[in-house]
Each structure stands twice: as structure tokens, then as C-alpha cells.
Amino acid sequence: MKKLAILALAGLIIMTAAVPFAAARELNDQADCNTNHMKCREYTLNLDAPWYKVALLLTACDIAFGKCMLGI
Amino acid sequence: MSTTKRMPAAAAILALAVVVMAGAVEAKGQAAGRRKAIEVAAPANEADEAVLGRPVALALDAGRLYIVDALDCAVKVFSKEGRFLASFGRKGRGPGELSFPSGVSVAGENIVVADKLNFRIQVFDRQGKARSGFKVPFAPDKVLALDAERLLITANPTGRRKGEKLLHVYDPSGLVVWEGLEARTSSDPVFDTFRNMILVCPGEAGDFHVVFRSGERTIHHFSRSGALLGKTVVDERHAFKILDIPSGRGVMRLVGFCWAAARDRGLFYLSGPEALAGRDLGPGREVSVIDGQGRLQATVELPCAVHRFLVEKGRMFAIDDEGGLRIFEVNR
Fold first, then answer.
1. Contacts of B254 in chain A (CB under 8 A)
2. pTM, two decimal places
3. b vs e for B169-204, b when ≥16 Cβ sit within 10 Å of the residue's Cβ?
4. What is the ipTM of this complex?
5. Domains in chain B with CATH codes
């Protein structure tokens, strides 16, 4: 279980590094980053999915937000 | 001689009877504490509109059930027997249009909808015609009409600002009446998101109750003006469920308490999270019936896991794992 979680997190980080967050290049504006981050979180929370999955998706939202703010 | 012989025998029979009766009473008590919900057969709804894409909130009035569908950006109306009646709203930004609606409540003759990604509250009449609305400076999550003059709106904090509030009360014209219940913050925003997940249940006279989904077993009771009226500690038999998740800061321990909650005639109906395959926590199929003092009155076993529900006069209107509407009798 622990190994699986580590692998899932590692995969998630690699995936977000390789696949740009939706239109990341255009999202240099902080307000857009904030809006997209908020939408990402709200979609995730409204899924009402099991909590492990929700935690992973929220982490992905945060990584995407960081990338957006850095403009990468 | 015969009388003295009969006396010990009679005493023994009497003692035996007392023991048997006590056992029977105890067994009866246990049986009363645990019961199975009885499903009420809902009619087959043939219309495409009746299909629920992502039902996220429910509300009831005297004769109808309103379900917000976040995927279809609509409010779907059913009879209390589960027959599809109508649908209103569509995706968009204009009057009567919705973007990812997430909450619904009945306010007198109006239906109030939390229009999340349009950052507004919209008010419809019973026929589904948009009447009014107002903008809010946050993404509204759930909405609850406390009375004709006050709307309670909940928010999921973004975690990026200090002092964010979970509860916001507005008047029908869109003026803030009060805001309260500050979001909990720490160095772990994902953990904070779980700690700030709340459910609200209406009280009797404009008051309301807040249940935290994880971390604590207390129900907070607020007046319509935002005063904290009290906290009720829930019976330990409605147990926490623990989930350890590896995070950037070590292990994040989620203390799951409640997946969904409703209130009916002074009783709380709380469904706890349930362990799923792979040790995750998902919606449960057991509902604890808790009285106003926090004592467990009964446990109701449902035939399926439910995500969200309302209870009215012992009848539960619930959303199952497939997003279908299910109706149960939970008080028999």
C-alpha cells in the first residue's frame, strides 16, 4: 500500500512535469492561476470521491498551481 | 413439610424467570438499536432529463424533491415518490443559467441555487423561472435558507488567504449579514482541506448545525444571527475511521467522522466513512441516528453506500454510488 502510494505520487509529479497544465504558457497572470487552482479544487471536492483519491487530486491541483505561478 | 420443600423450588423458578426476562429485555434493546432500511420502490423515469449526471445536493418542500446536477448544470425536480417532474437551468452565465451548481434550498416560494463557478446565488420560482440573484466574492458551495431574510452559504476555503470563513449569511438582496467559523490552517494545505470540510443541517427556527466531516466528533449549533449556541459531542459508538496518507510532510492522518449528514425532527442522521478496498475511505452504508444530546439511538443499515441524503419524517432521499436517487424508510 505504502509502495503503491509512493509510486502514485511519483507518477503524478513526473506526469505534471511532463504534461503542461492546461495552457500554462498563457497563465502568467496570478489571478488566472488562482482561478484555475480554485476550479481544480472545487471539481475535486465535488467528485465526492474516496479520500485517498481526493488527497492525490488536491496534490495535483497544488503542483499545477505552483507551475502556473512560475510560468512553466 | 411439603410447604418448606416447595419454597426453595419456587424461589429458584422466580430467579430463573427474572434472569430470562432480563435477558429478553436486553436482547430487545439491542434489536431496537440496529435496524435495516426498507427501500421504497421508485418509478422508472424514462426521460433523458431524469438521468442524474453528478447529483451534489438535495432539497425538499411540501411536495417536491430538488436535486442539483453539477454535470448537467440543472436542477431536477422529482415527486417525493421519485417520479421525475421537470428540470430547469442550463450551462451558461446568463440569468437562469448555471455553471457547476453545488447547492440548493427552498426559501418560501423560491428555489435558491449556489451557482458555484459563476460566483453567485440565483433565485428561481417554482416553475424554474429565474427571478433574481446576487454575486458573492467566493465560490458558493452549499446554500440553506434559514428564514425568509437569511441565506446561509458555505465555502470551501482556498487555503491561500488568512482568515477565510466557512459560513456566510446574506440577506435576499445580497448584503452580508454575518460571516463566521474561520478556516483551520496549517503548513499542509491538503490536510487543511479535509479539516475544513463541513456539512450543515437546518434547525427548527432559523438556527442550524455544523458537522465537521473529519477530525472532531462535535456538532456545532449556531443561531440565525451567528451566535454559537452549543456543541454536542457525538456518542463514541459512531466511530472515527482512520486513513493514513503519505504526504510531503510525512504521513497525513485523516480522522474520518462523517460522510453525509441530515436532521429530521430533532434527530441527526450521520453516515460514517467506510473502509474500501485498498484501505481508502469512501461513503458508508450505515447511518447513525443521534439525538440532541449526542447519544446513539439506532444504527440503520442501508442496502447500498450513499453519498448525500436528506431525511424527512423518517423517509430518506439518498444518492447512491451510481448517482441514482434511492428512497428508504429508516424509522421502522
1. 51, 55
2. 0.85
3. bbebeeeebbbebebbbeebbbbbbbbbbbbbbbbe
4. 0.84
5. 54-183 (2.130.10.10), 199-332 (2.130.10.10)
